[in-house]
Amino acid sequence: MKKLLISLLAMLVLTACAGGSSASIQGQWKLVSYGLPSEQTPAAPGVDTSIEFNSEGALAGNVGCNGFGGDYTVDGDTITFGSVMSTLMFCEGPVGEQETVTLNVFYESATFVLNGNTLTITSADGSSAILLERK
After folding, report:
1. pTM of the model
2. Which domains does the chain carry?
3. How far is CA 122 from the centre of its chain?
4. Cα-based angle 81, 85, 91 (whole degrees, multiple of 5)
5. What is the rounded CA–CA span in Å between residue 107 and residue 124?
6. Beta strands in 82-128 (DSSP E)
7. Would you give per-residue pLDDT tens digits along the chain (135 residues)?
């Protein structure tokens, strides 16, 4: 009986430790590339990008032109976004394009893959994706 209790306790501790080390999208990220999932365009060079997913479910950032923010929830490999709002400065060229694709990925829900320090978020319809790197 004592061995069984110790085994069960060990399993609970290991399960708790595994859960505590599960990967999280929380933190600050920079944009690496964007576009079709199979044909990514590198982020505009020389542009400081930042996207943050905080622990309270808020999203905020800037991918080169306008600041944006909103809320999110994670369930498995799906991120569901609330309304994401941004400032409304006119952005053209590669910076405007990367901003448009990024904000479109943050519409309603998206799937994600977290692989070490990289995070790939793909739009619900699969037509566009962004690749982020942890800052």
Report:
1. 0.82
2. 24-134 (2.40.128.270)
3. 9
4. 120
5. 8
6. 85-86, 109-115, 118-123
7. 444 333 333 333 333 333 333 479 999 999 999 999 999 999 999 999 999 999 999 999 999 999 999 999 999 999 999 999 999 999 999 999 999 999 999 999 999 999 999 999 999 999 999 999 999
